[in-house]
Amino acid sequence: MVEVDKDKCIGCGTCTSICPDVFEMDNDMKAKVRTQKKCPCIKDAINSCPTEAISQ
Length: 56
Ligand code: SF4
Description:
CATH architecture: 2-Layer Sandwich
Oligomer: single chain
Distance between the termini: 5 Å
Number of domains: 1
Mean pLDDT: 97
Structural class: alpha+beta
Shape: globular
Bound molecules: iron/sulfur cluster
Number of helices: 2
Order of helices and strands: EHEEHE
Number of strands: 4
Largest sheet: 2 strands, antiparallel
CATH class: Alpha Beta
Radius of gyration: 10 Å
Strand content: 15-25%
CATH topology: Alpha-Beta Plaits
């Protein structure tokens, strides 16, 4: 299960750009998981997150 730790997220938007099917910005301007879908781009988003807020 992919998760975003909102305490670590700084709202940079990188994950939503890399993998928009899985991540979206929430009303608090932090990322959230929109759907638990298996996408190869999740790994790229995890590796690109500057604060390591995404886990799987
Ligand atoms: S890449 Fe990381 S810090 Fe940036 S919006 Fe996504 S979860 Fe937040």
